[in-house]
Amino acid sequence: MTRGNVRVRGARVDEVDVFLSFVAELQHASGGRSGSLRNVFGVADTALKARFLDLLADPDRRVIFAVDDATDAPLGMAVLSRDEISALAGTPVINLSHMVVAPEQAHRGAARALIGASAEHAEEMGCEHVIVGISSGGRETHRFFARLGFAPLTSRRIASIGALRRTLGVPEHADGGYRRRRVLRPERVLTRPIPMSQRRARNSGTGAA
Length: 209
Known about the structure:
The chain is α+β, with helices and mostly antiparallel strands and 209 residues long. It is 37% helix and 19% strand.
């Protein structure tokens, strides 16, 4: 896909260093505030390289680069994933995530080209919508996507298991895991029916008293 002097193509296996540079730019741009990226920043490069290869091999995901049409130099990156709009609706959508443009390449249309490529990919995959996640503090980013027709959908929050364990009062195992509170069920007492002869004997004895 080409828009002006910007073209969008899939990432290649030998471009892992380009991928790592864009991940570093994502870290710098968000300042570690993005919940979806917080865990990525502490991952070693070797793990990120392996993750990059996994993304390229996954048929439901694509890593795309916006590049200079003349030099093929990467200008920006995005990750496309096939997802569902909700677990109940089951409507297929394309999730546009980790979109970043190198600061020195801003205002060249790379971001618009990446979004346009995500729309074309959605049509190819039979999806009618594109979803993008935006950090709560990205006011200008919110305005940018709103101008392109993106409407608010949901507000997502994230919590660590440790935080949930503390707030819910779930006991912790010695190995760092958590233990569910055991719900005690009432015990069933099994009784045998009393023979009719013993019932009559008891009734007659009670009446004699």
